[in-house]
Amino acid sequence: LKTPLKQAATSQLVLTERQPDCPPLTTPPKPKETPPADPWTPTSNLKMLISAASPEIRSREQRRQLSDSSSEEHLLGDEYEKSQPSRKEKSLGLLCHKFLARYPDYPSPSQKSYICLDEVTEELHVERRRIYDIVNVLESLHMVSRLARNRYVWHGRHNLPQTLQALKKVGEENKYIQQIQMIKKREYEHEFDADGKRNEEMASSFGSSEQSEMSFVELPGVEFRAASVNGRKYKSLRVMSQKFVMLFLVSTPQIVSLEVAAKILIGEDQLEDLDKSKFKTKIRRLYDIANVLSSLKLIKKVHVTEERGRKPAFKWTGPEVLPNTQDTKLEATSTTCAPPISESIPSKEQCSKALFPSKGKQNFTRHSSLIKLVKSIENDRRKIQSAPTSPVKISSSMYLFLTFLLETSFSLFLSQMTAEEMQMKRALSSPEAVPKPEPSQQPALSQPLGVCPASHSSVSPVILPHPQSGVSYAICLHPSQAHTVTTYSPGFMLQAVPCANITGMKSNNSKVLNKISTEEGDTQRGPDEPTKSLAAEERPETKSETLSRCLKRSQALPENNLIKRRKSDEESLDTSLTFFPSGYLIPLTHCTHGNKAECSNKEKAGVCSLQHTAYSSPITGVIPMPASELKTVNIPAFHITPLNIMLSPNSIAAAPVLSNSCLNSSSTGSASNPSSSALNFMLQHIGLIPAGVQVTANPVLQHMPGSSQSENTNHSSGSTNMQEGKVKIEFTFYSPINESTFLFSLQPSAPKEPQEPQAVTENFFRTPGGPNTEPSLSANSDSTQRTSQGTLYIPQRKLEVSED
DNA sequence: CCGTCCCGCCAGTAT
DNA sequence: ATACTGGCGGGACGG
């Protein structure tokens, strides 16, 4: 039998509505009309439904209502077409919305909510079968549990945090990350091979134990009493759902493509047949699951674009799941469902305070949060320490600073490449590309000493000891789009970091690499407040999240060489250019020198400890850091990738070039000032790139409402004329990836603001939250620019939103 | 054409 | 036996 034609369905519908007596052959003729008030939230229910429905549906329903109310008879004749329930109106997602609207997200524990399937099916006007789909995945999240036949309890989202945590844990145990990597890797290699080795690879990767077969993850509190159905098979959808969620929670860019998910879900059961139909079926199920997860706002649809084309995928938008809190602090937060944002914001503040204390003031009064953070880092370190990869030891403050710096500023303009892309590439790079560091290998340079990047950062910072100069450098590198190098005029490229070892990292792995970009599809937010909702949705990752995730991930990942290139580029390019790296060097002069020795000794460990109380840059001077913060952290090795920064020709033309000397002169005396030292720090390091480079400082004289009273340090060169001590420095970068420009600006602020010395510092690191300072996260704008007085405004990480 | 996914058959279970 | 569950995949719809 086939899916009934639309026409048929309609007539049938009309028929049944007209004559309840003659049920064609399907489900019981419903008593028609189901306006019983919503038990829970009658009003919000309706609202929710309407908002959930797409505009077209809305209007359609309006029309229908109109015609309905006006005259019934007409409906038959002229309007049958518009009254047709379009496919969308019957979608599982919408149905799920309706369903969810019936129950509160957080039902009061005192009063349990029960779900009677009969009622639901009747009231929602749907086949029973559909409700099962919904309920099953809700069950998998422990948002409902089955009491008995036809009966469920509604838990709402109360259990969600625990569930997710449990799922994440299981997901980790299942080694999904590896599996995903495997699949992706194979995807490449395969290309067109008659796979004879497929099985062995498979076997090896899935290797040890295939422990996870059909296990449903339960919660201690919530028992799963699906009668004796509990026993086996009747949990497929639930289990699938859980595993699907696991994939999100486990993979670092929390994006999972349907294809991969399906393969994994299949692979677990029987990894032999790559049955096509089975795959198709799996995909279909995943759509079902994804629909209700979407309704729950746990995921949303996106697309990943590879060279193969766009692939459907989903991105986790649910709460962040904190890694196991069993042994850990976080006393208060553990039960809350809301993501613990609040905890980390102060961290960033404190971090900035610690790094750039205001002049002469002992303003470390409120360090609790930073200390806490450091502690937790220490905690993490303990776990990491045993990791196989070689760790590097740097001060936590330094680490914080680096990650912070990278995350907040550098990464913003280095490229708009998202962390997801990075992750995907990382996943794709073949592990064996990087030989395990031999103890006898070349000394310091060849060993990967890394700071793992902030997860959202597009930069991979790496700490490199530099034997010759005795100075260690932090190199902020960016995963290269190697192919783009040749596409553009070399003149637009930042000069390569003159660091020998980078070439050593040149990958022999010239595997085809997909260019992956994620774009959000189906971004149908309400017609009103488009920006707002987006901004709210994409809350920037907070520091502690970043840190923990960062640490965690780097622990899990093998050190990979990430330099990859597109195959297509391979032939078209001059090979010598292809791997030309560029990036930032951040010298760490006070790298303890036990260090060097230590480093070379423990190459395998790659430990380099930085324990001085201050780290100075040769150019700028000292970045003051409280000794108390100088605990050390082990950062597992990370991969190093080249960086390509393209500068927009426009900006280059428009702006004068800052020279090193200018930066030098301006920066020397002002290190003690928080904002200026920070600014200098950045500028100088930008300046580290030889002046020929097209990093330009573009002084823009612009009215700054409140800043007139401030006498600013002149950070710009002589050529940069200062007026009223206000200078705005703009950097415009061109991202070769999506060929758009990215712009941000620096504004040095008053060095002395006696009454609020910290305000500057704090603001420096935060996106200001003034009324007019709403981040311009326009989906369409190519550049994001924020300016305001006395503050470095760092635009929110821009997400590429492409309407499908 | 293809990505989605609605529809409902029907097998397996619970009562 | 009857009703409930839910695996499954054909093929319709929408872009």
UniProtKB/TrEMBL annotation:
Presence of keyword Glycoprotein: no
UniProt GO molecular function: DNA-binding transcription factor activity, RNA polymerase II-specific; RNA polymerase II cis-regulatory region sequence-specific DNA binding
Ranges that cross the membrane: none
Pfam families assigned to the protein according to its UniProt record, in alphabetical order: WHD_E2F_TDP
Biased composition annotated in UniProt, kind: Basic and acidic residues: 57-87, 522-546
Composition bias, Polar residues: 773-791
Protein's name in the database: Transcription factor E2F8
Lineage of source species: Eukaryota, Metazoa, Chordata, Craniata, Vertebrata
Gene responsible for this protein: E2f8
